[in-house]
Amino acid sequence: MSIHFAAAPKPGRGPACLPIARAMAMRGVERFANDNDGDAACPVDDGISSDHMLGAALRYFAQHGIRAAREARDEAETAFFAGDRARYDWWLGITRTLDRRLAAEAVTRLAR
Fold first, then answer.
1. CA-based angle 52:56:58, to the nearest 5?
2. Is-above-0.70 flag for pTM?
3. CA angle, 44 then 46 then 51, to 5°
4. 89 burial class (0-12, 13-18, 19+ CB within 10 angstroms)?
5. What count of other Cβ atoms lies within 10 Å of the Cβ of residue 94?
6. Closest residue by Cα to residue 100 from 92, 110, 89
7. CB-hemisphere CA count at 13 Å for 68?
């Protein structure tokens, strides 16, 4: 089997420059959404630096993998029932950083 090399298409002539390709690329970009929209059930400002929290959350994720958010939520619940507010805020912040929806569910459930 032989290998044939072809010259790169001239600018403005390649398949990516066709109107349909451009329209589909724009539709793909429009589908992206940010789910960190400032959930009212999980306030972000708890007195802890967001960079510090992000670093701690990433380290926790490195240790526990995909289950890190659930593990952090469990730690927050343990601290909540022990009455340790500072530890609860810390673990809820870790949970919020890893999975905002899971943190909102935990706050709602613990509020009952």
1. 115
2. no
3. 70
4. middle
5. 27
6. 92
7. 19
